[in-house]
Design brief:
about 375 residues; alpha+beta; 14 helices; 4 strands
């Protein structure tokens, strides 16, 4: 604490008041409601839920409001709250094959069973400021543009209409698997329970399950930068997006008192599978390999970055040379967490008076030393 600041604890308490004033802003304007953040800043809410490891849009929106829009601070708040919650049980693995799709695209195949579902995306926008959004709430309704129903024949490679068939189409990787062209990943013998990073510290070497947990909670900007490095020649892999899927999946668990599985609700997730060519080895024929990413809500950048890093970190499995930072497990995983990174960097603005005075004294004594002593 800034005990040396004039006013001491009173100054700190006053800083809390100023923070509240800054958060509120101009009181002549309506206060931003948590429900508005949840509904209108959905992508921010989804990021906070993913990196905060709590699927609760309302709490994520509350954290964003409390943090004045600072997403890293909001993630910190949500994780801190999470640490106070009791663990009531474990869910069964999500069955993403039966996802109720809102969006599903493949950059590897033009025509896929079930068709491509564009859904809501910024991918094809012109990135021009829409000044129409500056209109006030009273006039906004008059300027709303009705959704266009573009004929899917206009764009042969993308179908804009949603699927009428509610059945989940076959996965793209399954098409390759039917020909034996992609690695298979059967569960290990006994299908052991994966570790839990929320309860135990990360140790190296880490299992793939722990790496994926780490990457799911990692800072999106960091994961994006590391994933970008793999595309600039620093990992030796050229991937293709096999499939990106956004939709609802059922969350199920088996309570001890019941002894059978029950559905406790649905959550929205983003899933990404990258496919990368592998030239083969003594033990494996030429084939495609996988990189996997999954995030809460609509977080495509995160899921894609995660899948790129997942594949890069599997270098040992394929006897690939590890020459790039993105392939080095300890480097990637040890620096991925936004809370640890932010905490360590920001702690530098806290008082270090004693440490600095010690170094200041050392430098003075070094400067006052004789030339012969400095040479030593």
């Amino acid at each position: 604490m800034y005990v040396a600041v004039k006013g001491g604890e009173a100054a700190i308490l006053r800083s809390y008041e100023l923070l509240d004033q800054q958060r509120r802003g101009d009181t002549a304007l309506p206060e931003l409601d948590v429900a508005q953040i949840r509904e209108q800043l959905k992508l921010s809410v989804d990021r906070v839920m993913t990196e905060g490891s709590v699927y609760d849009p309302e709490l994520a929106a509350l954290a964003i409001k409390q943090a004045s829009g600072d997403l890293v601070e909001a993630i910190f708040l949500l994780r801190a709250y999470r640490a106070t919650l009791p663990r009531l049980g474990h869910t069964t693995p999500l069955d993403t094959a039966n996802m109720l799709l809102d969006r599903r695209i493949s950059a590897s195949f033009k025509d896929v069973p079930g068709g491509q579902v564009l859904g809501a995306t910024y991918d094809y926008t012109q990135r021009l400021l829409d000044f129409q959004l500056l209109v006030n709430a009273h006039n906004e309704a008059e300027h709303v543009t009705p959704p266009s129903h573009t004929n899917s024949n206009t764009h042969d490679d993308i179908h804009h209409s949603a699927q009428e068939d509610t059945t989940t189409p076959i996965r793209v990787v399954d098409l390759l698997n039917q020909e034996g062209l992609i690695e298979t990943q059967p569960p290990p013998t006994g299908d052991p329970q994966p570790g839990d990073l929320t309860r135990e510290p990360l140790h190296f070497p880490a299992s793939r399950a722990l790496r994926l947990q780490n990457l799911a909670r990692s800072d999106e900007g960091y994961a994006l930068a590391m994933a970008y490095s793999t595309q600039r020649g620093y990992a030796g892999n050229h991937p293709f997006v096999g499939e990106i899927r956004l939709g609802l999946v059922s969350v199920c668990m088996t309570p001890d008192e019941l002894g059978f599985e029950i559905d406790i609700g649905d959550i929205q997730i983003t899933e990404c599978e990258m496919i990368t060519q592998f030239e083969g080895s003594i033990d494996s024929p030429p084939q495609f390999t996988r990189g996997y990413g999954l995030a809460m809500g609509h977080c495509e950048r995160k899921a894609m970055s995660m899948s790129l890093l997942d594949r890069a970190l599997r270098a040992d499995e394929f006897s690939e040379r590890k020459e790039s930072p993105a392939q080095m497990e300890e480097f990637v995983l040890s620096h991925s967490d936004s809370l640890e990174a932010s905490g360590f960097v920001q702690h530098l603005k806290l008082p270090h008076y004693v440490d600095f005075q010690a170094e200041l004294d050392l430098v003075r004594r070094m400067r006052n030393a004789t030339p012969s002593e400095n040479n030593l």
